[in-house]
């Protein structure tokens, strides 16, 4: 992780909120993605990664982009972005239901291993837009164009999945098959 992600306190930020936020992001960094909560959530969560990318963009647009790229590297062939990408290095039993519960790659030929079968709200395009906006302001336009060229087809596939597989009635409304897909947290503790 670059030092940019751990800025010093400045007089412009008397509360130091950005400093503390950057510190949490750095402490939870797992390389190409960020753990939302290392003890309770030791894996990569879909919409958490989008919001994390929004926060990271303030300090390091390249690392913010990598957050989304790492998530979308586990996109299903159908276009689905799984709600969890399980970290194979996490201790067994560190989260229930774990990867062994889902076994998505066994039941769906288009599912990467170590992913869940649910999805979460599609906030990833908002994160990509934020990365673009910040990159433009930092004169990182060339990098941002390359990032958008790579992520756009994946975002399009993700939204097409939602418009087709998740709208079986053709109503224009996404069907939620499980409460966790709404972004609520009803996980066992």
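Q: What amino acid sequence fits the structure above?
A:
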């Amino acid at each position: 992780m670059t030092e940019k992600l751990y800025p010093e306190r400045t007089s412009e930020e008397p509360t130091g909120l950005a400093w503390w936020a950057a510190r949490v992001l750095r402490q939870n960094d797992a390389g190409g993605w960020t753990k939302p909560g290392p003890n309770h959530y030791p894996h990569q969560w879909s919409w958490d990664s989008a919001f994390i990318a929004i926060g990271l963009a303030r300090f390091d647009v390249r690392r913010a982009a990598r957050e989304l790229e790492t998530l979308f590297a586990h996109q299903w062939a159908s276009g689905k972005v799984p709600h969890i990408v399980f970290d194979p290095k996490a201790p067994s039993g560190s989260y229930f239901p774990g990867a062994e519960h889902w076994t998505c790659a066994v039941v769906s030929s288009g599912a990467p291993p170590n992913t869940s079968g649910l999805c979460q709200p599609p906030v990833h395009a908002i994160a990509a837009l934020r990365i673009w906006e910040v990159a433009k302001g930092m004169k990182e336009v060339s990098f941002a164009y390359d990032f958008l060229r790579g992520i756009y087809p994946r975002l399009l596939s993700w939204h097409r999945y939602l418009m087709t597989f998740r709208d079986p009635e053709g109503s224009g409304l996404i069907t939620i098959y499980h409460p966790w897909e709404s972004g609520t947290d009803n996980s066992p503790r």
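Q: And what stands out in the fold?
A: The first strand starts at residue 44 and ends at 45.
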